[in-house]
Amino acid sequence: MAEAKAVGRPKQAGGQPVACPRCEAFNPRGAATCAACGLSLVRQAWADRYTQAPWQLALLSILTFSLYDFYWFHRTWRMLRDLRPGGQPRRPGLRTLGLLVPGLNCVLIYRLFRDVRDITPAAHPPEQEREGLEPAALLVLYVGFVLCWRLPTPWWWIVSRLAIVAPLLTQRQVNRAVVATLPDVRGARQFSWPELVALAVGIFFTLLVLNSTYNCALCIPTLNNT
After folding, report:
1. Measured between alpha carbons, how far is residue 87 from residues 79, 81, 90, 177 in Å?
2. Rg (Cα) of the chain, in Å, rounded?
3. How many Cβ atoms are within 10 Å of 41's Cβ, its own excluded?
């Protein structure tokens, strides 16, 4: 491993060397392939853009109060555009904005779940082509938990975080589809630095919310006694 890491270690004019995700050898920034193991760094970079461990997605969604979900939907629409013939669906950015429109958002989410399911069979044997929940069930699961935040009980905002279950199941299918398309790449990536920043900010605000909820729970008995 030490010899592999030494390959291409000298700095290049174009910037700091980049470590290969497979063998950890250093390569010049912008190199198309790893000089040590031959991995296509361009293909790996494409896979890193769309693959993600389910626990990473869950953590980011919960700690950002589902704001990360908007980025996840946008990223998944871009992945579908790259993999499907004809570059469909078009305009992932507009589709992401459409998530803010009641009614339209349900249609867009359903179609995304359906499209991901349709590209996934290539990653499975024929008997496993329909593994997992149907798109309609995923939509009901997602929307049902999202609407829980409207309930009066303060702790229901925690229950609404379970909406991430539907994207988690869909991300598993995305990972399989990407690995089936590029079998020589690694199927999971590390947190990017913007995601690490989002996690840090999310932890801070989550602690504030939990503290406020706890204080409110303590205040209710006191007010009743007075």
Report:
1. 10, 4, 7, 16
2. 21
3. 20
Q: Which of 25-34, 62-71, 148-157 has the lowest mean pLDDT?
A: 148-157
Does residue 89 contact residue 224 with C-beta atoms inside 8 Å?
A: no
* Model confidence pLDDT, tens digit, residues 49-64: 889 999 999 999 988 9
**1 CA to centre of own chain:** 31
Nearest alpha-carbon partner for 176 in 224, 140, 104, 125: 125
Supply 56's token pair: 């990473």
Is 0.85 topped by the overall pTM? no
More confident residue, 192 or 167: 167
CB 169 within 8 A of CB 112: no
